[in-house]
Design a protein that fits this description.
The chain is of the alpha/beta class and about 260 residues long. About 45% of the residues lie in helices and about 15% in strands. The model has no long low-confidence stretch (mean pLDDT about 95). Bound molecules: nicotinamide-adenine-dinucleotide (NAD).
Length: about 260
């Protein structure tokens, strides 16, 4: 029997602790701000120490309790140390957002091995390892948890010039579904967000190409690129009590790209 809650608490994250990887800028920073605005304390797990500190200061400026932890999520020791530091500082954590990622636009036949390896390390292996660390700790402590992974429209439909990226995001989709089923008995909900084109440093060069506006208008029902805040709202939903009956889901925030 699930207790009925006050509808005003459906998006309340007061007292929750959220770890957001790659929260220094872009979608990760917008998610950190949105989770924080709904009451969560934020761990900014970000590669560049100065960017991490800057983001944490910006969150603090909005009245959000935030801890900067310089982290390379592709190094297991650094990733594990970040979880340790988060727990030392805040106590247990409740939400993990696997956001750090990289993209590259290169023809598949020209794709260099080193670029493949580094992309898989960040977009796929680090995501799985972070999910595994979080789940182990929640299961051991008998605590519920929420995982929100950043997939992509490219994880579910073709995105030419991005084959390795698309492969890693497809892997994120299947990690999300499979771990959701494995961990549901432990009260751990695992979902993903599938953004379309969102204007960030990752996509600025592509979005500024002269013909890209026309492609996006043709490929999306809404007819424009999205904003980081439009992705952040989905993350709040997937971290909040409102989504307590949602798991293994990939929430497309793509302006209708995959609906067409
Ligand atoms: N922008 C888009 O259009 C779009 C579309 C679909 C999916 N996504 C996904 O959303 C996520 C965020 O994208 P974005 O556009 O905000 O990217 P971004 O490049 O603007 O930001 C990525 C952040 O991750 C950090 N980071 C990189 N490597 C790291 C590492 N090893 N350890 C820790 N942090 C690291 C970067 O320093 C940066 O702050 C990615 O997973 C991306 O694939 C983005």
């Amino acid at each position: 029997m699930v207790a009925r809650m006050d509808p005003r608490s459906l998006f309340d994250l007061t007292g929750k602790v959220a770890i957001v990887t790659g929260a220094g800028r872009g979608i990760g920073l917008a998610i950190a701000e949105a989770l924080g605005a709904h009451g969560a304390k934020i761990v900014v797990a970000e590669l560049d120490p100065a960017t991490a500190e800057h983001a944490a200061a910006r969150l603090a400026g909005h009245g959000i309790e935030a801890l900067a932890v310089a982290t390379d999520v592709t190094h297991l020791a650094s990733l594990t140390a970040m979880f340790d530091r988060a727990e030392q500082h805040f106590g247990a954590f409740d939400i993990l957002v696997n956001n750090a990622g990289v993209s590259a636009r290169i023809a598949a036949e020209d794709y260099p091995d080193e670029a493949w390896d580094s992309m898989v390390a960040l977009n796929q292996t680090a995501v799985f390892r972070a999910m595994r660390i979080a789940a182990r700790r929640w299961i051991t402590a008998g605590r519920p948890g929420r995982i929100v992974n950043l997939a992509s429209f490219a994880g579910v439909v073709a995105d030419p010039m991005s084959a390795p990226y698309a492969a890693t995001k497809g892997a994120v989709v299947q990690l999300t579904r499979t771990c959701a089923v494995e961990w549901a008995p432990h009260g751990i909900l695992v979902n993903a967000i599938g953004p379309g084109y969102i204007r960030t440093e990752m996509t600025a060069k592509t979005l500024d190409l002269p013909d890209v506006g026309a492609v996006i208008r043709a490929k999306t029902a809404i007819g424009r690129a999205g904003t980081t805040q439009e992705v952040a709202g989905a993350a709040v939903f997937l971290a909040a009590p409102a989504s307590s009956y949602v798991t293994g889901h990939v929430l497309m925030v793509d302006g209708g790209w995959t609906a067409l």
